[in-house]
Design a protein that fits this description.
With 354 residues, the protein is α/β, with parallel strands linked by helices. Helix content is 41%, strand content 17%. The strands form 2 sheets. A 7-stranded mixed beta sheet has the order 2-1-3-4-5-11-13, with helices on both faces. Helix 1 crosses helix 3 (30-43). The protein is elongated and about 85 Å long. The two termini are 46 Å apart.
Amino acid sequence: MASIKDVAAAAGVSVATVSRVLNDHPSVSPAARATVLAAVETLGYRPNAVARSLRTDQTRTLGLVISDVLNPYFTELARSVEEEARALGYSVIIGNADERPELQDHHVRTLLDRRIDGLLVSPTDGGSPLMLDAARAGTAMVFVDRWIPGMDVPVVRADGRTAIHDLVTHLHTLGHRRLAIIAGPAATTTGSERVAAFREALQEYGLPLPDAYIGQGDFQAASGRRVTEEFLDLPEPPEVVFAADNLMALGALDAIRARGLRVPDDIALAAFDDIAWFVHTDPPITAIAQPTPELGRAAVRALVDRIEGRPPQSVTLPARLVVRRSCGESRGEAPGEPPYPHQPPHSSPQRSNT
């Protein structure tokens, strides 16, 4: 493997001149720069990224800690983060928290030890002393999808409140009156926010949300199955189960089918977090779609702004209801739209200085 000395010898210049060219220093003449770059290309020289980071105090690397890599929503989010970071000249190291706070903090600590330039996190719970200390120490950080209340960190997220209201309106129009929810962990902002929005929308139509119709899940399929079985065992089961994420919705579907019941003939099903699979179930599942690729790109841009000294901004994008046929819709009412990532957003992002 060629060294910087080999490049200097091939170009007939000093090692210092090669270093200045590689670091884009303005003092090098155009002729010398061209000669050095030609030698770099011929020899296939690649600078030592670790050594460069020690000189510049930058690694051009971002850390991303996602809540669950098996969740298609977070997989799509990670993909868009990596693509946008690469376009801006950064690499990404990804850690999977698996919805476990202790594993989340392990990844955060490891990434900070590796001297990343900035950190993107979708927190697994409502508090992390490690992240609070990192933010106070000046670590460039952005929360994506979820956030920790009280921390002065930009947040990039989707606003699902309007879409949940639209879903409840849609269900009410179809004649449903007994609506239940499989909630995410109350310690997460998305878990508590979706339950609150669902309750508020029901209240607008004078519909109750009894405790028996609020099942506590954990954003995993197994909890969706368990909670749905509990709903089905009630003396008066709900007419609709609304799962607050896609994996819990798939678990709910398993539980319904295991009882020999059909969606939507026996019980309706809707979900938050649309995924490509939902168009292939029978029937296709009515869902709330988040603008996942846009969220990933906006999060990277906000973090790079922070790293490069520009004022970071929080960004809120709209989620929207995608009507299919899992709630008793007729084929005419349910156009079977593709998942959100293939659709352009219909409104501009809301931005606020943080």
